[in-house]
Amino acid sequence: MKILHFSDTHLGFNDLDIINENNINQREADFYDAFTQVVEQIKLIKPDYIIHTGDLFHRASPSNRAITYALEKFNEINALNIPFILIAGNHSTPRTNLSSPILKIFENFKNIYVSYNQEYKKIEFEDVVFHTLPHMNDENIACEQINSCEANIDENKRNIMMMHCSVGAWYLMSEFGEWVYPSNKEYIFEKMDYVALGHWHGFGKVGKYENVYYSGSVERTSLNDKRNSKGFIVANIKDTLTIDYIEINIRTIRQKEIDCSDLEASIQALDTSDCQNAIVEVKLTNLTPLGSIDIQNKQIKELFPTALSVSIKREFKKDITSSNIDNLEAISLEEYFLEHIKESCNDLEYERLKQKTQELFSKYEEVSYDTN
Ligand SMILES: [Mn+2]
């Protein structure tokens, strides 16, 4: 039995304020592209079942575009005649009982089975039972629901558990309303053929369990997520379980460093060949306060003309204590300017210009004082 497991597709997510040629936020389009790649792979792999372990949409009330896109793709999946089972994650679960869960829109598709009611739901086929535990806002209710799950294990069929949670404290995402699976219930995992997890955005096996996996997200919802590998799982359940992780192509993120103690050499040595269309993060290191003023972000960005975006972080020299940075604030524009001409001319010329500068600056101060 071949089960294709993917998760955390976060349709509708957007970031970076970059609009593409179709007038769509480029990062939002990246998420649609990642989802499309999985659907194309589903058509090739033709698994027996498809499962999605939550956070289909980024928000509980997605945009029209995200909903329209999802309906188009779900139509394609539905036409394959492969059962597709989905559970709600924390992002697609309303926080109050007043709003209607978005996954309800898939109720009328013939081959799509959704679980979103904050309770255990058994989805059963001839040879397999999917024990679905969607995101639950209330931990006490969640415990009872886990008990129902255990009570429904069918010895004569394959048993697959589907959840959107952190197993232990290791897989928390620092988000609102995360559900931590109680560790005293982990023994249930051993009674399952496969435990499919969502919520954690990296692919991986959970602890000592050979049958418990996060498929990871299909794109990064935060630039703190530096993973360049995203994809999905094909779980083959025969006498033993085999797990194949299949990568998709996603927007790359690159981290570069420019050592400002020798700016020119460092720029010269910079390899930008892997930055095409990438999200680039540049760290300027060994900066001095005055040196930092001289380096403009624009100048650094121009080093990566083919990147999608460039963000710059400035890191000051380690031996410069905060008091030196305080000094920077204390340096007036006048002093800074004088320092600059001192570097560029001889002493005699400096004295002459110094006088002139001080004259001009005092005049400027008078003017700005008057306008106040
Ligand atoms: Mn997620």
Automatic annotation (TrEMBL):
Species the sequence originates in: Arcobacter ellisii
What is this protein's record name? Exonuclease sbcCD subunit D
Q: What is the lineage of its organism?
A: Bacteria, Pseudomonadati, Campylobacterota, Epsilonproteobacteria, Campylobacterales
Query: What Gene Ontology terms describe what this protein does at the molecular function level?
Result: exonuclease activity
Q: Which UniProt keywords apply?
A: Exonuclease, Hydrolase, Nuclease
Q: Where is the Calcineurin-like phosphoesterase domain?
A: 1-202
Q: Which domain of life is it from?
A: Bacteria
Q: Which Pfam families match?
A: Metallophos
